[in-house]
Structures are given as C-alpha cells and as structure tokens.
Amino acid sequence: MLCFTGDINLTDWIFNVGFGIGTNISKGLDPFKYLEWKDNDIWIGNFEGVASNVSAYKGIYAKAFRVEPDALKGLHHLDYYGFANNHAMEHGGEAYKETVVALESYGSKVFGLKDRKSVVFEHQGKTVSLTGLCLRIEAMKEEPLYWHNPEYKEIQAEIDSLPKDAFKVLYVHWGNEYINRPSAAQKKFAHWLIDIGFDLIIGMHPHVLQGYEDYNGGRIYYSLGNCVFDMPSEQCKIGGLVGVDFSKGESIYTEQYLKIDEECCPHVVNEKEIQQQWHFDYLNERLKIDDNSEEYHQEIRKGYLVYRKANRRQLMASAVKHPGFFCEIMKDFVKRKIKR
Question: What tens digit of pLDDT does each residue of 269-291 get?
C-alpha cells in the first residue's frame, strides 16, 4: 500500500529553540514510533524543515526550522519525502542541498527539486510517479531550488515526461493556512491538474485537514494537515493518513485520522476521537461552498486568530519554564524594531 501523510517538521522553531521537537529528537525521540509500518508499504510525506550543518542566518534564527543531520539518523524515516515547500529554503541554498543529501543518506528518496521534480517506481505491479510542486509565493533571498510556481505549460511538460501508464501523484504545497476548505480558484486549478493526467493530488500547507473529492476519474485531497509538527493550536494537531492499494488491480483508497500528542508524535485514531468539525464527511460538505468572497477571507482570519492565541499561550508558558530563551527572543525582537 502507498501511505500518504501531510506536513512533517522535525526541527525546533522560533518559539521553542532549545526545547522543541528537534532538540528532543537529538536526545533520542523518534516521532514516528507509534505508526504501524507494514512490510512492502511505501510511506510518503512532505519534509518541511531543514537538516543541515550550515545556515544563511546567525544567532537564534540559525537554529529555528533547522536540525543537524546527525540528529535524524536514528529515525524510522519515510520512504519518500517531497521537498518543495515554503520552509525548504529557510536557511539558504547550501542548506537545502545538504538536506537533500542527508535525507538520501537515511535511505529516503527526495522529489520536488527543480532538477528532480518527479520520481518513478514500481509498487504492487503498478508504475507510480510522485511529483512535487510548491505554489506559495515567498520572499526569498535566493532563487528556490525546489519546483515552484511554474507556468501551466511547464506542468504539462512534466506530466508528458512521465510514463504514460503510471499512476501519477502530485504532492502540492498550496492554499491558505488554518481554513478547512480551499478557495474556488484552487478547486478550479485542481480540476485542471486531473484533466491533464494526474490521478491523485495530495495537498498540504494549510496545517489543518480539508476535504477530498473525486473528479474526472481522479481524486483530490486538498489538505492532509500535519503529520509531525510542533504547533500548539488544537486544529493543527489533527491530520490525515491516506492509503492507496493496487493489489486488486485498481486503486482502492482508505482514509484514517492522525492525532499529534504532546511529544509531537502522530497516532492513528478512531473518528470518534476527532471533533466532528474535522471529520471528512463534514469537510467534504464544505467543499460544496464555491466562493472567494469576503466570508471566505473572514474564515481565514478566524483560523489565524485561533492559531496566534495558542502561540501566545505557549510563548508565555515557555517564558516561565525557559526564561533564558524568552530573554533571547525579546532581545532579538528589540534589535529588529530598532533596525526598522
């Protein structure tokens, strides 16, 4: 079976440098330890972070969203990582290249690079291709080394280069964060991607679950949310795990829910353990709302407020538990204010 997950971050981030998941991994934590790894299953996820010994930054920002490669050696890594996302170039081009080398040294294969957009392999008697793409527009000091914001003709050219009989999967970083449905424009684009030949679209970046739909013989999961991520908001602790089985000659889909615990480890859980607003049945109904209206953008803002409120609570708790860290954050904040 192919097992698809969403966003995976194995690093400390700016609010918990020195005591986040990256630090805990360096002390022996394997965040994948509760997942059930069956023989012959292929696991795929989005690697949203950096594993390098170098950074384009200095000070505390050189430590956020980055972990040293040696810290990840002992993990039960996924078989394939997509590496086309808005945090991949967080520490510059050299760090990006080091991350690719590190992931492959663990036995994983990487796709979504500018010079390796897709990978192809055989599974259960079926040729499968994985293509990685980022549609986020970010302010980067360097030109991204991952495949980003291509023209339609470039996407068509990439799919034309793949084996015609392949089951074609697109891992795409897109959409708006903290909202449980895509925009009308996003859905229209997703339909075009199926029309040109992709069989399955796996979306990520919103950090929350969104619904899925069948369209023109293909399937679109608009967002699988988080798999491993240290985000305090409860909405960001629920993700999806999608299985695709070819053993009976056709693609059979299954959906399961992931819940991230206090150690940032995902567990497969029953639907009864998930609030109804994150059930796929409910989220699929939300897909029927077809707009880019002010109401849609108000929903985005509401999701951001929930996320920021949880962040503030975590920051205050960290200030009590780790006062040295809090002082470093405040010093940096003041320096940036003075520079402005």
Answer: 999 999 999 999 999 999 998 77
Closest CA to 170 of 131, 203, 118, 120: 131
Using an 8 Å Cβ cutoff, are 209 and 278 in contact? yes
Report phi then psi at 143, rounded to 5: -65, 125
87 backbone φψ class: left, alpha, beta (φ>0; ψ -120 to 50): alpha
DSSP states along 108-144: -EEE-BTTB-EEEEEETTEEEEEEEEE------SS--
Candidates 213, 209, 228; CA nearest to 276 is 209
Give the model's pLDDT for residue 89: 94
- The first and second tokens of residue 286, run together, are 């939300």
**What sign does the dihedral 103-104-110-116 (CA atoms) show?**
positive
Alpha-carbon span 13 to 239, nearest angstrom? 20
Q: What is the pLDDT of residue 314?
A: 77
Asked if residues 237 and 274 have their Cβ atoms less than 8 Å apart, the reply is no
- Could you give the CA distance from residue 133 to residue 145 in angstroms, rounded to a whole number? 11
Q: What is the DSSP string of 259-293?
A: EE-TTS-EEEE-GGGS-GGGSHHHHHHHTT----S
Question: Which residue bears the tokens 């969104």?
Answer: 210
CB of 207 within 8 A of CB of 185?
no
Report residue 19's pLDDT band, with 50, 70 and 90 as the boundaries: confident
Instruction: Give 114-155 pLDDT, tens digit per residue.
Output: 999 999 999 999 999 999 999 987 666 789 999 999 999 999
Place of tokens 């990840």: 72
Contact of 24 with 263, CB cutoff 8 Å: yes
**HEC states along 157-169?**
HHHHCCCCCCEEE
Neighbours of 180 (CB within 10 A): 21
Q: Which amino acid is at 66?
A: R
Domains by residue range for the chain, with CATH: 2-339 (3.60.21)
**pTM value surpassing 0.85:** yes
